[in-house]
Design a protein that fits this description.
Blueprint lengths: L11 E3 L2 E4 L1 H13 L2 H7 L4 H15 L4 E4 L7 E4 L1 H25 L5
């Protein structure tokens, strides 16, 4: 049948369940873009608490922080990706590309 495609998702699991998946990847990218967990959460229509919990979970499971925060003050607080966070983000992007290549290949095997 025309229009059929093989689909799939990929994520990395750790001791707490999901360590890194598509949504968490976007959250990390938005934290890098905005320099703020709060702004990143708003851009994703996510509560600050949920975003904070995801960041804390990723930091714990990685054994090294992926995101570092600074306490607010006169200039306000902020957040930034650590080199470890950048490393995991690049790795997950690479995994996504491999998955896309695999899915395209498998879609080519469908009859039709």
């Amino acid at each position: 049948m025309k229009g059929l495609r093989v689909r799939g998702k990929i994520w990395i699991e750790g001791p707490e369940g999901t360590f890194l998946g598509y949504g968490r990847m976007v959250l990390l990218e938005r934290i890098r873009e905005y320099g703020s967990i709060s702004a990143a959460a708003r851009s994703m229509n996510m509560s600050y608490k949920h975003a904070w919990d995801l960041v804390e979970s990723m930091n714990r499971q990685a054994g090294k922080p992926l995101v570092e925060t600074t306490v607010g003050g006169k200039g306000g607080g902020g957040a930034r990706l650590t080199p470890e966070g950048e490393k995991w983000l690049a790795l997950f992007r690479k995994l996504l590309k491999h998955l896309e290549t695999f899915l395209e290949k498998e879609t080519g095997l469908l009859p039709g």
